[in-house]
Amino acid sequence: MNWFIADAWAQAPAGPAQGSPYVTLIMLGAMFAIFYFLLIRPQAKRAKEHKAMVAALAKGDEVVTAGGVLGRITHVGENFVTVEIADKVEIRVQRPAIQTVLPKGTIKSAG
């Protein structure tokens, strides 16, 4: 069995495989493209849509806040919105805290 070990020691050590540097650059570019189209682009699109929705808030809109509170907008300020959540019960929230604008009549059907 010694002749197998001797053959193994007699072989020259194998060097690391050399690849083209262009393949590495192409793979890096492909990984960036995958991250851009799967993560960055959809996130930016959602942020743009939310910003447009917050800018279009108006008195009488039925909304849901980030905390899950359902109500109707009674006053729109520059930075804050007053939301009526029950009869004669109003809260002030920041405009970006409005999560969703609901169709008219949602509050009546939810209660």
From TrEMBL:
UniProt subcellular location: Cell membrane
Membrane topology listed for this record: Single-pass membrane protein
Key word Transcription regulation present: no
Keywords: Cell membrane, Membrane, Protein transport, Translocation, Transmembrane, Transmembrane helix, Transport
GO BP term, pick one: protein transport
Pfam families named in the record: YajC
Domain of life: Bacteria
Transmembrane segments: 20-39
Keyword Transmembrane helix: yes
Annotated GO CC locations: plasma membrane
Family stated for the protein in its record: Belongs to the YajC family.
Protein name: Sec translocon accessory complex subunit YajC
Source organism per UniProt: Sulfurifustis variabilis
